[in-house]
Design goal:
By secondary structure, the chain is mainly alpha-helical. It is 58% helix and 8% strand. It contains four helices and three strands, in the order βαβαβαα. The longest helix is centred in the last third of the chain and has 38 residues.
């Protein structure tokens, strides 16, 4: 993933859409995302992912390839989204650890 310029992530096989986003790669997703509908919808609403179809995928990649500012925009938004999600997960993990530690100290 880190060596790619574009990442196509489809829901088949449970691929994690946040991995390429965290590496600031423009993310294009297909039609089969049953395992990640909520996260993909949130990314789409924030402009951090391109939803495509099997008919449109080539055109979507070409558009990004030809438009460097769009490429950067999607890469940046994807990365910002992933970092935001990552930070909220780290905060939650820290809270759980602190709660456990505080219970053991009492």
């Amino acid at each position: 993933v880190s060596q790619s310029r574009y990442c196509f992530v489809d829901g088949i096989g449970g691929h994690n859409i946040l991995e390429p986003a965290a590496l600031a790669k423009p993310v294009i997703t297909g039609e089969f995302n049953q395992n990640f509908d909520d996260i993909i919808d949130a990314m789409f609403e924030s402009g951090a992912v391109i939803k495509s179809s099997s008919e449109a995928i080539c055109g979507d990649v070409v558009k990004l390839f030809q438009n460097k500012s769009k490429y950067k925009e999607f890469a940046t938004k994807a990365n910002e989204f992933a970092m935001q999600k990552s930070q909220s997960h780290i905060s939650l993990i820290n809270k759980i650890i602190n709660d456990i530690f505080n219970k053991q100290s009492n």
